[in-house]
Amino acid sequence: MKVVSMFVPCSVDLFLPDIAESTVTLLRRAGVDPVYHQGQTCCGQPAYNSGYRQEAKAAARHFIELFGEDEVVVSPSGSCAGTVKFHYPELFQDDPVWFRRATELAARVFELSQYLVDVLKVDDFGAAFAGKVAFHESCHNLRRLGISAQPRKLLAAVKGAEVVPMNQEDFCCGFGGTFANNYADISESMVQDKVENFLGSGADVLLLSEPGCLLNINGYLSRKHPQKKARHLASFLVENMKEGRS
Amino acid sequence: MKIRTEQFNQLAAVEIEKARVRPFLKMVPEFLYRKRAAGLPSLPDPDAAQAYAAAVRAEVVNRLPDLLEEFERNATANGAKVFWARDAKEANDFIVKVAKERGVKTVIKGKSMITEELGLNDVLTANGITPWETDLGEFIAQQMNLPPFHIIAPAMNIPVEEIRDCFMEKAGMETPTVDPVELGYAARVFLRDKFQGAEMGIAGVNIAVAETGTVINVENEGNIRFSKSAPKTLVSVMSLEKVIPTMQDAINMIRVLARNCTGQRISAYVSMESGPKRADEVDGPEELFIVILDNGRSKIYQDTEVREIMQCIRCAACLNICPVYRQIGGYAYGGAYSGPMGQALMPLLFGLDRTKDLYRACSLCGACASVCPAGIDHPKLFLNFRDKDVKQDPRFNSQQRPAKERMFFRLFSLGMSHPGLWKLGARLFRPIFNLNAHDGVVSRMPGPLAGWFRKRDMPAMPVKPFHQRWEELKDKKS
Fold first, then answer.
1. Residues above pLDDT 90, as percent of chain A
2. Which residues pair with B293 in a beta bridge?
3. What is the pLDDT of residue A200?
4. Interface pTM (ipTM) of the complex?
5. Cβ atoms < 10 Å from Cβ of A90
6. How large is the average pLDDT for residues A31-49?
7. Which of B273, B295, B317 is the last residue of a domain?
């Protein structure tokens, strides 16, 4: 069986472990053997986005050492995958040895839905859901990695689920990492708009494939509309599979 | 105008409250964004046209000195007088000198962000010269003493009732009305004799064509063409990146600019000056001065990592799509240029120290870059500015970051590269983070994370993070 290395973002490891467990289930169901390196930490995106490139480089070197020999690296976060794919090579543009290692690795890193649909060609996991779902297009998935069709294919295969359109599906939810905390006025207004659009769509659940957006949108829902929830697509698929988690 | 980039957070908070009361910010940018989306497909190949525009603008920035010299040669050969201004003061002094030498008391102006950057109206007024803004939105903003709220729709935020009151008080309107056509008519009547009496016109420049020495303006009201052709003297002010190699490039740029701006195939008016009026011509200014403004742009040109901001054509597509602009509007940015293009340009013009919130108040969603017809990657520039700050790059007045933040990232970096430390840190952090947890939810958090928790919860950190669960999962293969 093909070995697939899981890159589990620190937010998922420490706060949202069910997303990583669901990733294991989906990969196994799709016929590959997921492995997990215990040495993984954080990809360094918070440091990079805050301008701390030297600090981000330390994270990048560690990541490249840890994952460098893996044939395929898959992450349930397009934003973290994007850091490895795009920012690592940038960080080492003046360092030929590390630049080569970073670019070689970048080509082998995939976001989960992208890997399942584009590479493994699996989109039906036998999930069934009687209800309406809306989909939030996360910024880095959509605009950095060009991912939108893949999660929607996975969704379309869920029996009984009605995918309803949502106003401003492709608008930022206001997460943006440290932005959400440091510019709370603006960020709160953005997530409020996102949630209003979700409620206005009539969907029972809001699906997305990015842990950061999930923390932000669910954080706001939990406070203001506790009966409503957003779910990571991987968790949603596994929860609604006949066989459940494995 | 007064630069208030340091007050970003206070101004933003005020504007968010205002926007909640009156949801115009939910409507106007979306309206313009939809116009653009509907207008772009009228090009035979929209992607190719956008790519051509971006390539031309990139070429301009890379060949800037050569193109400017070519433009100057050809404009001068056409009879225009070219003045190079190193900074705002030189530009303003020159314009005042031209006005005074000709005994000018009244100036009519076409809307131009470059003269906002110069603070020209205040300087003219201080020298006894009355400037009249003749673009309807800019006229309203001028009469109400407000900065532009949007680079192409400067008064889009002002309620019609306030415009009515302002026109009753200052623009000679006699019958109160909130009918937009009537209000527009009142402004036209009021401005008509200003046009007729004006001795000098001042306008910005959308495109300066190097091969022909032509300055081009695009607009929808006809006021710029009027301002440029009625007075005897015309001063056209351009920042130095407005130049474009050929007339053919310029024509494509006009098509792309209009569509990105308002979704139009072409603006209602396009005016071109290749020199002043010639002996056999009936219309046009007798004298044409072209002020080419540097004001910090040569310095931007020298930094190849950031100079792509000079590719900007001021179409405002980035403002209209920006989720931050849509919450706070244009005033919060504290200068003439708002939205992502302002966040990328003003830090380089005014210094990274005076604009630190402009390049940080961004979620890096990338919507701006995805629509930009000039090929600018705004988030990449913001990340570059943040990097400059952290490493205290001596250019652009970068500033050292707070000691606490530097210490945090140093420790964070140590953790990221040492898994043992990382896991220990996570174990120690958990009880602190979960101190106020109830039913698996944390709703309160003092200290540096307080911003998040004002209106949002976080899940409590689970006892078993994934890396521990994996030890049980890994052998349970299905």
1. 97
2. B85, B239
3. 98
4. 0.96
5. 15
6. 97
7. B295
- Quote the tokens at residue A79: 């934003």
- CATH label of the domain that carries residue B181: 3.40.50.10420
Chain B residues closer than 8 Å to A200 by CB: none
Output the six-digit token pair for B156. 């889009």
Burial of B302 (0-12, 13-18, 19+ CB in 10 A): exposed
Domains of chain A are 3-118 (1.20.1050.140), 123-239 (3.40.50)
pLDDT digits (tens, 9 = 90+) for A69-124: 999 999 999 999 999 999 999 999 999 999 999 999 999 999 999 999 999 999 99
Give, for B328, the enclosing helix (H) or strand (E): helix B325-328
pLDDT, tens digit, 9 for 90 and up, residues B307-319: 999 999 999 999 9
Q: Please state the rounded mean pLDDT for residues B361-376.
A: 98
Can you tell me whether residue B81 is helix, strand or coil?
strand
The pLDDT value given to residue B207: 98
Helices (H) and strands (E) counted in chain B, each on its own, are 22, 13
Which of A39, A40, A172 is nearest residue B365 as measured by Cβ atoms? A172
Q: Is residue B8 part of a domain?
A: no
Which residue's entry shows tokens 């659940």?
A: A205
In a domain, B469, yes or no: yes
**Residue B136 placed within a domain:** yes
Cross-chain Cβ contact B452/A219 below 8 Å? yes
| Helix ranges restricted to H, B44-83 | 46-62, 64-77
**Residue A95 in 3-state DSSP?**
coil
Domain-terminating residue out of B295, B327, B351: B295
Q: What pLDDT is recorded for position B24? A: 87
**What is the rounded distance in angstroms from the CA atom of residue B475 to the CA atom of residue B478?**
9
DSSP string, B394-434: TGGG--PPPHHHHHHHHHHHHHHH-HHHHHHHHHHHHHHHG
pLDDT tens string A166-224? 999 999 999 999 999 999 999 999 999 999 999 999 999 999 999 999 999 999 999 99
Question: Is residue B301 assigned to a domain?
Answer: no
Mutate to test the interface with B, among A3, A15, A197, A231 (most CBs of B within 10 A): A15
Using a CB-CB distance cutoff of 8 angstroms, which residues of chain B are in contact with residue A185?
A: 9, 12-13, 16
Q: Position A16: which residue type?
A: L
Query: In this complex, do B416 and A59 lie within 8 Å of one another by their Cβ atoms?
Result: yes
Count of structural domains within chain B: 2
The domain of B431 spans 417-473
Contact B327, A190 (CB under 8 A): yes
pLDDT digits (tens, 9 = 90+) for B175-197: 999 999 999 999 999 999 899 88
Flag if B365 and A139 touch (Cβ within 8 Å): yes
Phi-psi region of A221 (alpha: psi -120 to 50; beta: other; left: phi over 0): alpha
Q: What is the spatial distance between Cα B425 and Cα A5, in angstroms, rounded to a whole number? A: 24
B135 — pLDDT class (breaks 50, 70, 90) = very high
